[in-house]
UniProtKB/TrEMBL annotation:
Family matches, as Gene3D superfamilies: 1.10.287.70
Subcellular location: Membrane
SUPFAM superfamilies in UniProt: Voltage-gated potassium channels
Region Disordered, residue ranges: 189-219
Any Pfam family matching the protein: Ion_trans_2
GO MF term set: outward rectifier potassium channel activity; potassium ion leak channel activity
Main location: membrane
Chain intervals with Polar residues compositional bias: 204-219
Designated name of the protein: Potassium channel subfamily K member 1
Biological process, per Gene Ontology: stabilization of membrane potential
Alphabetically ordered keywords of this record: Ion channel, Ion transport, Membrane, Potassium, Transmembrane, Transmembrane helix, Transport
Organism whose genome encodes this protein: Fulmarus glacialis
Length: 219
């Protein structure tokens, strides 16, 4: 997220931060991708398939309703409820500022203008920081699951196709014609080689000269 309230000051600390980030960020992305791909099977695909097969509802309608319900649950449990908790635990934060912190953090913007647990009179500060870390990790996974669920909607896939680069049909036809010509030429070459092989395998027969045939007839 990168709030910027804690930064390395020494040259060794800055060098370690660069090396650690180069190694840690790809592994973090791989971890999040693996976790989201496994969660979405149980949270999105199987429930949609269950209602589609068991109750006979349209798969597209079930997917839309499921995405809306999942989005509402995620907003409630990772934005509204945490915002209410932060507004109580943080002395100078109201509900809007707490909700703003949740959105800025889970969207990975991380401006750093609001950082929880930085007050001098904060009770159980270490435990509070660990709880915030777990909240950010779980919230980020939930956000990715919701985004992946919406990306699998049929209507959104059709909308995304509007921005795809379309291939020129004439170029496709040219490629097809070239492919056909190559295939025809290869077939003709193969047929010619097969005929040559058949001629080579035939027994050699000596043809009699016409003069010898005439002399035999005269005799």
């Amino acid at each position: 997220t990168g709030y910027g309230h804690t930064v390395p000051l020494s040259d060794g600390g800055k060098a370690f931060c660069v090396i650690y980030s180069v190694i840690g960020i790809p592994f973090t992305l791989l971890f999040l991708t693996a976790v989201v791909q496994r969660i979405i099977v149980y949270v999105t695909r199987r429930p949609v398939l269950y209602f589609h097969i068991r109750w006979g509802f349209s798969k597209q309608v079930v997917a839309i309703i499921h995405a809306i319900v999942l989005g509402f649950i995620t907003v409630s449990f990772f934005f509204l409820i945490p915002a209410a908790v932060f507004s109580v635990l943080e002395d100078n934060w109201n509900f809007l500022e707490s909700f703003y912190f949740c959105f800025i953090s889970l969207s990975t913007i991380g401006l750093g203008d609001y950082v929880p647990g930085e007050g001098y009179n904060q009770k159980f500060r270490e435990l509070y920081k660990i709880g915030i870390t777990c909240y950010l990790l779980l919230g980020l996974i939930a956000m990715l699951v919701v985004l992946e669920t919406f990306c699998e909607l049929h209507e959104l896939k059709k909308f995304r196709k509007l921005f795809y680069v379309k291939k020129d049909k004439e170029e496709d036809q040219v490629h097809i014609m070239e492919h056909d010509q190559l295939s025809f030429s290869s077939i003709s070459d193969q047929a010619a080689s097969m005929k040559d092989d058949q001629k080579a395998n035939e027994p050699f027969v000596t043809s009699q000269s016409p003069t010898s045939n005439d002399s035999s007839l005269n005799n």
